[in-house]
Amino acid sequence: MPERITSLKDGAACGTKPAPPCTLVIFGAGGDLTKRLLMPSLYNLAGAGLLPEGFSILGVDHGEGSDQTLRDGLTKTMEEFSKDPTSEFHAASIDPKSWGFVRDRLHYLKGDFEKPETFQAVKDKVKGSAVFYCAVAARFFGTIVDGLGQAGLLKQEEGTFRRVVIEKPFGSDLASAQDLNARILKQGDESQFYRIDHFLGKDTVQSIMAFRFANGLLEPVWRREYIDSIQITAAETVGVEERGGFYEPTGALRDMVPNHMFQLLCMVGMEPPNSFDAEAVRTEKAKLAQAVQPIPPEDAVRGQYTAGTCEGRQVPGYRDEPHVDKSSVTETYIALKLHIENWRWAGVPFYIRTGKRMTGRRTEIAVLFKPAPYKLFEDTPTDDLRPTVMRITIDPEHGIGTEYNVKVPGPEMKIGRVSTSFRYNDFFADTPNVGYETLLYDCMIGDATLFQRADNIEAGWAAVDPLLKGWPQADVAFYPAGSAGPKEADELLARDGRHWLGIDGKTD
Ligand code: BG6
């Protein structure tokens, strides 16, 4: 079994030993992901001493280039990103030693992902262990894996490994995800495929497991007898920006729900695994995802943003974004009610919402506990007793807060609402992290805990499949940019006598 340094880390990728020697082959070396996230992550890993001496990178792409042009180009983008406060990677300066370590190991190969000779050329250059990273558009995932398999690049000689990292979106519905799984598994074993979901690279997402399973206080009440409902929110203020071409056929449901939102759902809802071994954790996550009932269209609200004011700025509606159809009905917002049919959660609704151009940025899981069993304070001037709420915040702050009722000081028994909160930054040093460090490192050491297994991916798609099948006819509700989403989403909860918590992070 591969050595896991610590699966629940209190910093970025913070193993203690360098990964084993290997070549990282990046298909899509000229792309955005390579520039924005992979290079800064490798730089941070080099800075932490986690890359081995025998490490090299082979960038493959269709454009003309050489080792030197790749090195110069990526040095330039590293510098640009480090100065851009809106990029994931911003640093006061770039450490020449760490960047030099990465830069001097960069090599370039011009190649067409659809031609067998590209993979023969890769084979001539790659000896020993290798990680093949598909940093390309989804339509190439199957083609690249076929190319690797047919060239014999996925054969693992004694003492070496050959692994493939596949980005999202993994399929666009259940049938296509099943087809892609079947296709890649013809070329290699499940243990060789690392399906990435970048939410699992977020330390705060990983720490949900620690919070739940390293504290005896929570597990007894983490169940249907004590929990009223759970709300999972991923609200963004950004619009689709330049990604209209990708977003039009995708929409918020496919883009966020069966992958990112389901990862949060699994973390908060899974049973305790027997160990933190990758298979034990992934089995529990898959079981939870498989218990999610297919979502009927009446439990879903689709929204699309219109022009409005977001973060003090006038912004256009979705239909006026570049590469978007003027009469598009693609959803930029989705709200869902989910039922999980298992012993722990039967009868507890899970409400999920995610949208672009909303009033604030907030990724959060809110656990709403059942109210006190009877009104002990009936004869006193109390406010309506609201439930205890626990909020696990992933973005923009990283922390956990609890809201509950206490007595307001004074002669009357008046109940007031208060909160206590913990923020990671108050306790732990910030480590440089753009979010892919742990994932890259784990792949190199062979720890698949934070990657999605085929059954987990397919369970996510199976739950949303009824919605996708009914999509072409489905209505889209409009909401102004900078708002909390369409009113129809409020009605979804109002029908159950509940309401969404605010996106501003204020006490409910
Ligand atoms: C990506 C989606 O996977 O996740 C984007 O394609 C979305 O549309 C992004 O904006 C959200 O990730 P994060 O880490 O910024 O919350």
TrEMBL record:
The keyword Oxidoreductase applies. Catalyzes the oxidation of glucose 6-phosphate to 6-phosphogluconolactone. It catalyses: D-glucose 6-phosphate + NADP(+) = 6-phospho-D-glucono-1,5-lactone + NADPH + H(+). The lineage of its organism: Bacteria, Pseudomonadati, Pseudomonadota, Alphaproteobacteria, Hyphomicrobiales. Gene3D superfamilies: Dihydrodipicolinate Reductase, domain 2, NAD(P)-binding Rossmann-like Domain. InterPro entries: G6P_DH, G6P_DH_C, G6P_DH_NAD-bd, NAD(P)-bd_dom_sf. NADP(+) binds at D112, F113, K168. Pfam families: G6PD_C, G6PD_N. Belongs to the glucose-6-phosphate dehydrogenase family. Keywords: Carbohydrate metabolism, Glucose metabolism, NADP, Oxidoreductase. Residues 25-206 form the Glucose-6-phosphate dehydrogenase NAD-binding domain. This is Glucose-6-phosphate 1-dehydrogenase. Its EC number is 1.1.1.49. One of its GO terms (molecular function) is glucose-6-phosphate dehydrogenase activity. Residues 209-500 form the Glucose-6-phosphate dehydrogenase C-terminal domain. Pathway: Carbohydrate degradation; pentose phosphate pathway; D-ribulose 5-phosphate from D-glucose 6-phosphate (oxidative stage): step 1/3. Substrate binds at H198, K202, E236, D255, K356. The keyword Repeat does not apply. The active site is at H260.
